[in-house]
Design brief:
Residues 452-472 are annotated as: Disordered. InterPro entries: Nucleotide-diphossugar_trans. This is Glycosyltransferase, catalytic subunit of cellulose synthase and poly-beta-1,6-N-acetylglucosamine synthase. Keywords: Glycosyltransferase, Membrane, Transferase, Transmembrane, Transmembrane helix. This protein is α/β, with parallel strands linked by helices. The protein has a single domain (1-472), classed as Spore Coat Polysaccharide Biosynthesis Protein SpsA, Chain A (Alpha-Beta Complex). The protein contains 14 helices and 8 strands. The protein has helices at residues 10-19, 30-49, 51-79, 110-119, 139-146, 167-174, 196-207, 226-248, 264-270, 280-290, 310-331, 342-372, 382-409, 415-442; strands at 98-103, 128-135, 154-159, 182-185, 191-192, 211-219, 260-263, 294-304. An 8-stranded mixed beta sheet has the order 3-2-1-4-7-6-8-5, sandwiched between helices. Strand 1, helix 4 and strand 2 (128-135) form a beta-alpha-beta unit. Helix 11 (310-331) packs across helix 12 (342-372). The longest helix has 31 residues, at 342-372. The two termini are 32 Å apart.
Length: 472
């Protein structure tokens, strides 16, 4: 690669050398993006000259996508054997040490509750090392931190403000100074339950480097807006149903961005984080699985706030969609025969991700195609009626699943209100999906900062001198 990287962060440059073609940087260079763009243009041109052939082909792929995604949701919600939360209790002759990495960027008082939650973890403090990673130029976060009196086992690590400006780059800076046997990550809005480290230690002690445990994540501000209400339902379905089902069967899944626990040895062996991928968690999941590290659900809960406005939601989901698309470009084909996946594991990991990435486009394409083609509602052929019923069945199942999820979360919403939430949420997905693909071509490493809100107001602590910090 001939591009000049003299202004790149040195840790990112070194990591690029370690990861090689497994880094996202090799899939976001201009030649690759131009080639992908020309592919879209080529499909459009062929569609103009052969509209029926291309139209029916896309239609078939779209309906197959609907059936695939719906089958996952129906299976997880109605046909998976219920499992009970097995309490993780016990004592160890010697508890392992943990390094907790907390990357922050442009955060204000919202981080106070997070740091208090970490400090309140029921675990020997001499076995905890908390590394707060902040860019040198991030005055907002540094001012907010100066209002806190941090315990001795907290350390603030200042890193240069150099590209790429990603969470993965920040975590790479913290890894060399992490002294814990095990590593975990908490975000600015993470609120782990007090017993989480003890549960993780008990689970990890027998697994050593062979397993990575992911705690469940729940949304705490579910009542702040209809968006956060539906977002909470999404997370509940993902962690309590989809991820739980895969974990019970020993099948791989994508890690969340925080509250996962693994040994430092396993993390380094897998290559740690890719600083050029805006969804570093999905990328890390792939490389852990390739190293035969088993992913399992930990029966522990972390609460966090989610975006409650359309703009904030679309920006966050744009980054997720873009990063997942890039992750597929990097790893999808080459992992098909990977020893860590296997065919069943490959399918359970990748197919839901592929299906979710395609859904925004087919949500627009299929109804338009059916109305404008001979499959319109005005026709009475068996095929047209069957296809319209299948589309209605898909929407109906989504409605029923969301209704079930709302009830289990204790969200009070009318049946029509749930349907309206489901319908509006589709348009948010459409916006984020198209924006993500546009950004892949124009700004593949742009990081949309999620604005975090604190649902409960807390008293602002008195300012403390900067000398309390351990700066590196």
């Amino acid at each position: 690669m001939k591009k000049n990287y003299s202004t790149m962060d040195s840790f990112a440059r070194t990591q690029l050398g370690h990861l090689g073609t497994k880094s996202a940087l090799y899939r976001i260079q201009w030649p690759t993006r131009i080639f992908a763009f020309l592919g879209w243009i080529g499909l459009l041109v062929v569609g103009i000259y052969y509209p029926i052939t291309i139209g029916l082909a896309l239609f078939g792929v779209g309906f197959l996508n609907y059936v695939l995604l719906l089958s996952f949701r129906i299976s997880n919600n109605f046909f998976t054997k219920p499992t009970t939360d097995s309490a993780i209790t016990g004592q160890l002759p010697s508890w392992p040490s943990f390094s907790i990495l907390v990357p922050l960027k442009n955060e204000d008082e919202v981080i106070h509750a997070t740091l208090r939650s970490i400090e309140a973890l029921d675990y020997p403090q001499y076995l905890m090392q908390v590394i707060i990673v902040v860019e040198e130029t991030d005055q907002l976060t540094r001012r907010s931190l100066r209002t806190l009196t941090l315990p001795d086992f907290f350390k603030v690590l200042l890193i240069p403000a150099l590209p790429p400006y990603t969470k993965g780059r920040a975590l790479l800076h913290a890894l060399p100074i992490a002294t814990g046997e095990y590593i975990t990550v908490y975000d600015a809005e993470s609120r782990p339950e007090p017993s989480q480290l003890r549960k993780a230690a008990l689970a990890l002690v027998g697994a050593k480097e062979t397993t990575c445990f992911q705690a469940k994540i729940s949304i705490s501000n579910r009542s702040s807006s209809w968006i956060s209400r539906h977002f909470a339902g999404e997370y509940y379905e993902w962690y309590e149903r989809h991820m739980r089902a895969l974990s019970a069967q020993g099948l791989p899944f994508g890690l969340g961005g925080n509250s996962f626990f693994l040994s430092k040895i396993a993390l380094e062996k897998a290559g740690a984080w890719d600083p050029f991928n805006v969804t570093e968690d999905a990328d890390l999941s792939v490389r852990l699985i390739e190293q035969s590290v088993k992913l399992q659900l930990l029966e522990s809960l972390t609460t966090e706030t989610c975006p409650d406005s359309a703009t904030n939601w679309i920006n966050q989901r744009t980054r997720w969609n873009k990063g997942l698309f890039i992750t597929q470009l990097v790893h999808l084909r080459r992992t098909l025969l990977s020893r860590g996946f296997g065919l069943e594991g490959w399918s359970s990991f990748w197919l839901p991700m592929i299906s979710s990435a395609l859904t925004p486009f087919f949500n627009i394409y299929i109804p338009i195609f059916m109305i404008m083609s001979d499959l319109s509602y005005a026709t009475t052929t068996v095929m047209s009626i069957s296809l319209w019923l299948l589309l209605a069945f898909n929407l109906g199942c989504s409605w029923v699943i969301n209704f079930k999820t709302y009830r289990q979360l204790g969200i009070k919403q009318s049946v029509l209100g749930i349907f309206w939430d489901t319908f509006r949420y589709l348009f948010l997905h459409l916006s984020a999906g198209f924006k993500a693909y546009g950004e892949y071509f124009l700004a593949p490493m742009h990081w949309h900062k999620t604005d975090h809100t604190e649902p409960e107001q807390s008293n602002r602590p008195a300012p403390a001198p900067e000398a309390q910090f351990s700066l590196s």
